[in-house]
Amino acid sequence: MEQLFKKQLEVAVKTLTALQRRGHVSFKVFVGDEEYGDLEVVRKAKRTRSTSLHPFGAVRDYVVPFLDALKPDEIVSIPFNQFDPESLRGNACAWATTKWGKGSYSTTVNRELQTVEIYRHEA
Fold first, then answer.
1. Domain total in the chain
2. Residue 20 located in a structural domain
3. Would you say residue 11 has pLDDT above 90?
4. pTM of the shown model
5. What is the three-state SS of the chain?
6. Is 114 found in the same domain as 66?
C-alpha cells in the first residue's frame, strides 16, 4: 500500500477509534492480514459450486436440438427424460435468451405430461 494511503488509513482508524470510545460506532477494518477495531465479524465462507448430477453441458446438449429449429409462433415440448425440470427449463431459458433475446419466449413446466414447454413469440 502506498504511503499516502497508509497515512489516510491511520487517520481513519484513529477517528473511528475515538468515535467508538464515545459509543457512537462499532467498526472493524481489514487490511491484508491486519485488523483494526473490535467489532465481531463473521467472515462469509466462500461459496462453492454444488455437485452437478450430470456432466458439464449435458442438459444444454439435450435441450439445444429441440430449440434450434423452433420458429417464431411455434411451441415445443421437451420431455424431462432423466433431468430435473427446473434445470431443464433453466438451460432452455439461458439458451433462448442468448439466441433470441430477453422476452422473446415463454416457458412452463407441465408436470402432468412431464415436459418443459417453450413458446417462441412472434418477432
1. 2
2. yes
3. yes
4. 0.58
5. CCHHHHHHHHHHHHHHHHHHHCCCCCCCEEECCEEECCCCCCCCCCCCCCCCCCCCCHHHHHHHHHHHCCCCCEEEEEECCCCCHHHHHHHHHHHHHHHHCCCCEEEEEECCCCEEEEEECCC
6. yes
